[in-house]
Amino acid sequence: MNWGVHDVVSLEQYRENLLGVREAIPQMLELFHRFDIHATWAIVGMLYCENKRELLDSLPSLRPNYENSNFSPYKKLNDVGKNEGEDPFHYAKSLIRKIEKYPNQEIATHTFSHYYCLEKGQNEKSFEADLQAALKIANANGHVVKSLVFPRNQSNQSYLQVCKKYGIQCFRGNELSWPYRASRFHKEGVMKRALRLLDSYLNVCGHDTYPIFEVETEPIVNLPSSRFLRPYIAKLKILEPLRLRRIKKSITHAAQKGEVFHLWWHPHNFGKDIEENIQFLTEILQLVSKLRSEYDFESLSMGEASALVLKMNG
């Protein structure tokens, strides 16, 4: 899961989701514990800060100068509150502490500032500074980070050597199908978005599962995603059985073939319609539990999966 509140959409658009995440995360953690799910939480570094002073002191020395200023959280620092009690949108240390108390939950990075690696106005040096800041604050909180999730799925191959330099072992790559290829925000296009939405309900692009021995390892391990767990949408309620069947069929395919199925979502996706989203997730995890018994289908965090890949390529 990738977790951060700094995005190109306005805070008002996601206010309900971001407040609801404080109820949704504990429920997700309980589900993961109940079904022995090993999950990866990719956290935006800014969320670690306890107050405004720590936030300002933790900022990277070099920052991106995006052509589209809306991409930069640094332009909005004046709007950030003093602490988590006053501003539950930009601080989340209490939730991070809750996550780390549960077994088999990996803390990964989603960069320090929700950094966009393909947008104009940023470069390798500003990315490196951002990654340094992300790892510094994670390490200060006792977390050794081995996994990275690129914000907006903007995986930039030229930055992987930088990741390796700072001890990152793996990243979440994109599905291979055309609608999922990494691109700039405004280059997405209506067609790509429409195909991704359709693919959530019908098998348009395949299962996107893969044998673990085919995973790319250089310069770091690439663990491509298989499916984005879209949140419940009341207007599309009639299609919910199709959405569930789509995911279940792909998970079953992976278990039967002995392949990897990589499911991901943002915690704030569950911040609205929490009951419906949690029930949907429960049904998925019930299937995973069944497949574990039938096919020895393992649940692994990104860090665990990449360690297994590296061991196999020993």
Automatic annotation (TrEMBL):
Indicate the segments annotated as coiled coil, or none if absent.
none
Known InterPro entries for this protein? Glyco_hydro/deAcase_b/a-brl (IPR011330), NODB_dom (IPR002509)
List, alphabetically, the SUPFAM superfamilies matched: Glycoside hydrolase/deacetylase (SSF88713)
Indicate the segments forming the NodB homology domain, all copies. Answer: 22-170
What Pfam family is a match for this entry?
A: Polysacc_deac_1
Protein name in the entry = Polysaccharide deacetylase family protein
